[in-house]
Amino acid sequence: MAYHYALGGETYRFEDLKTLLGKASAARSGDQLAGLAAETDAQRIAARYALADLPLTTFLTTALIPYEHDDVTRLIVDTHDGAAFAPLASMTVGEFRNWLLADTTTTAVLTAAASGITPEMAAAVSKIMRNQDLMAVSRKVRVITRFRNTIGLEGCLATRLQPNHPTDDLKGIAASTLDGLLRGMGDAVIGINPATDSVANGFDLLNMLDHARQRYDIPTQTCVLTHVTNTLEIMNKGGAVDLVFQSIAGTQKANEGFGVSLAILQEAYEAALSLKRGTLGQNVMYFETGQGAALSANAHHGVDQQTVEARAYAVARAYNPLLVNTVVGFIGPEYLYDGKQIIRAGLEDHFCAKLLGVPMGCDACYTNHAEADQDDMDNLMVLLAAAGITFLIGVPGADDIMLNYQSLSFHDLLSLRSLLGLKPAPEFALWLEQMGLYDTQTQHMLDRNPGQTLLGQMVRPT
Amino acid sequence: MTDHTPTRTPAASHPDVWQELRHLTRARIGLPRAGNALRTSDVLDFQAAHAKARDAVHTPLDVNAMQAALGPVPSLVVHSQAADRATYLRRPDLGRRLAPECAQTLQQGPWDVVFVAADGLSSFATQQSAIPLFMATKQLLPDWHIAPLVIATQGRVALGDDIATCLKANMVVVMIGERPGLSVADSLGVYLTYAPYVGCPDSARNCISNIHPHGLVVLAAAAKLAWLMQQARTLKLTGIGLKDAAPDMALSPSTQISLPKDHDA
């Protein structure tokens, strides 16, 4: 069915629902590359007017990607909670925005609605929301998860410590881990992207991380971000798997490009649950996503990149994850060209995920061929933290020497916690205090070097 | 400092243990604090490295200098359908196709192989290493019928397929600047494809990456490449099948299932 809107003396026609969503999106290079973006600014706003008038029920009756062809569509449709949707059933997309922002739409109301909201509804409303709207609504949502600590509490900002090394050198990784812990990082997870994606290598890295965690009794979880099939094998061999990691996307074909299916994710989820390694809770999954993944696999089915991205959160929430993050600027300028596009996408991803009840974090990052720099990351981290982001990623000096891109430094995250009065996860903050690294009174990380703490024994230079 | 390997003064009160730990990793570990933030020298070191990486992306390949360096060795110059760097960065599809006017200038073979030196995402890498690598590899393949070196601007890896098809070459070696990082902005990657055609999948290629003075040096890369080329000619294939047949060499098929990223430099 086609949609029409008259604006400024011209009538704009939009062929179908996915065309309308694409044209209504804030400008970004990935949609331009795919030929889905608005051709003029006026066309974009006409699409937004038309979208605002659309009943939310449209998204329950119109599949963007056919049910028969795509298991993500089937997951979304089959798990939709009609009772939770009932209070929203009479709303248009425009009314939905107003409702989300209303003072009477509290944290409890949003929590109750989450299972009634589809990714497409979240994506649609985000397209008619300004950055501050995305932040204001995200801020009201609380998603709390637990494994060995509590992630997502009001007033807390967790961090993933990312100690990557180009040859997976154990001592090199330990040195970066030590650096991060001394800066109060790692309450979300200590997570390595391995240079070599193999079972044997993953097993050794996990063993090293688990040994350090147990030796110092660190109330956190560790992860090697290897392919889910490797993690399954590592679990079968008795490896120290806290969390199962996988990159996921919003269509069946894109997930196939990652070598995963919903069945494999389910198998890994059940295997990790059976290990019962969590002490406070059993959220055992960790997912990464990012706009452009489906398009880069030629698996987007003509759907704009932000809407496809939101569909990945439906996949994530099916497995009760501890952590999910968008790797927002990693994919390159052909999908998100510059700082403005990266910042907007980061806020959209966080909003859509939180609205669906997903514990969303972000790798605020960019590559050297994008028009972005550390000032853009400063802006993005502050906006995301103000919006209540669950966790952010930190690497030593913001420079990932294995993946060759820039994220946030440990220092950036310390500054951010200080600037907005945010604390680490409570169990982790207590541990930091016991280790003599953190002053609970002032909520301040003390400036300690390895020689001044027991942790210094974690790694020896030779 | 353009190199971030730090040589800083320890705080007076306690010895800088980090100095020793830095032998374990090139990561920017143990950077001191100014309040919560990084100290001035580290902020500027980072910006200097970022500037170098950006310049590697945006500085045009000096084609004249490359031809001068080749001396009497024949070469051809082509460009992709991406008219400029801004288009190149936004439209990877155009960087993979040869501009129509360039197709006519290519001298048809048959050739055993054509070498392509493309700017990719780091003209610094191509400027520095492509011609030495071409000359060194050529020496190791005395009986091969090798096409003139093709110097390509605004090029991506798959541009080589188009070039090889026009030239009627059995194999293509694309030497291309890799996406620059902060620690290495001049790393060259080499992609070998047997029987290339337009639309050829990345899984049909073999890649040798990390070629730069502090990584894999040119002569070692040339030896590896020549070995691969000889095997490819014997086996009549490249990609996964060749990788599996290779002894313990640091090479990979050019597609890996991993986080989505622009592996196609």
What is the residue-mean pLDDT of chain A, rounded to a whole number?
Answer: 96
Order of helices and strands of chain B: HEEHHEHHHEHEHEEEHHE
Number of helices of chain A: 21
Level-2 CATH architecture of chain B:
3-Layer(aba) Sandwich
Supply the CATH architecture of the largest domain in chain A.
Answer: Alpha-Beta Barrel
Number of helices of chain B: 10
Average pLDDT across residues of chain B? 88
N-to-C terminal Cα separation of chain A, in Å? 69 Å
Quaternary = heterodimer
Structural class of chain A: alpha/beta
Low-confidence stretches of chain A: none
* Derived structural class of chain B: alpha/beta
Largest sheet of chain B: 7 strands, mixed
Binding site for adenosylcob(III)alamin (chain A): 194, 246, 296, 402
Enzyme class (chain A): lyase
Cofactor (chain A): adenosylcob(III)alamin
GO molecular function (chain A): cobalamin binding; ethanolamine ammonia-lyase activity
